[in-house]
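Give me C-alpha cells for this 307-residue protein.
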Amino acid sequence: MVPFDVPAFYQEWATHSGGVFDAAAGVGSDTLADIRLAYRKFFQDNFPAPGGVDFVAVNAGGVAAEYATPTDAITGRHLIYLHGGAYLVGDPQSYRGLVGNLAVRLRAHVLVPDYRLAPEAVFPAAVDGVVTAYRWLLEQGTAPQNVVFAGDSAGGAMAVSALVAARDQGLAMPAASIAISPWANLEHTGATMRTLDGIDPSVNRAGLRRAADLVLGSAPQNTPLASPVYADTRGLPPVLIQIGGHEVMLSDAIRLATKLAEDAVPTRLDIAPEMGHVWHLLAGLLPAADKAVADAVAFAEQHLAPA
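Here you go.
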C-alpha cells in the first residue's frame, strides 16, 4: 500500500485557500462562486462521503442546512457540525466525507448549517446563523443533553463562540463541544503565528490576516464572538480542543483552553505532534487522523445522554 502523500495534500489545499483569500478581496461574485465550487470539488474528490449515510437538505429556522443520518442512528442523538473555510468558503456538501465519518462512528444525526459567508455577509453573520440553527433544532423537540457541537478552523472557533451567543440568548447548553484546529484569535498574536509560520503546511499568518480583514467588516479583531480567546465562557459545557503541533494556530488554541479553564469550563486540550490543520480529514489515510477522530467521538459519547 502506497503511503498517502500528506505534504502534497496540504500543498494543494494551501493553493486553493490562498487563491480564495486573494480572489475574495478583488473579484466579482460570479468568479467567487466559481472558486467556491472548485474548493468544494477539491474536498469531494479527496474526501468522498461514506456509504450508509443519507444526506438531506433542510431549512433550519431560515438557515439552509444539511442533515446527515447513518442507517443505525440513535434516536434523538445529534451532532451540530460547523465547517471550516475561514468564513469565506466551504459548505455542507464539501464536508460530507468528514461529517459522514463522524455520523457513522457516533451513530448520530448530524446537522451542518450552511451559514452565510464573507465578504457578502461579514461578522457576526456566521455566528448568528449557527445560533439560529441550534434554536431550530431545540424547537423540534431535541433535548440539549442529546446534542454535541463540533467544528474545524473557523467552525472550531464557532464551536465555542456560538455557544457563548446561545447562552446569552437564554438557550440551554448542549452536552459538550469539540473545537478542531480553532481559528480562535483574529489578532493572530500567538507566538506560533511567527515560530511555525512556514512550518505549518496548511495555512500562514499572512493569509489568515487577509481573511480576517474580509470577515470582520468594521468589527475589531478582538471582538469576543470573532476571537473567543476574549469571550466570557462561563457556563459553557465541557470542551475538547484538538490542535496540531505544526499549526500556526497552536498558541492561540492553548490560550483558548486556558481561558475556558479560568472560566471554570471543563476543558481538555489535545496536541497532536507534527500534525497540520484539521488533520482529521485524513482519517482512513493517516493513523494520527484516525486517532483524533476516535478521540473526538469518545469525548462526545462520554458527555451525551446514554443511548
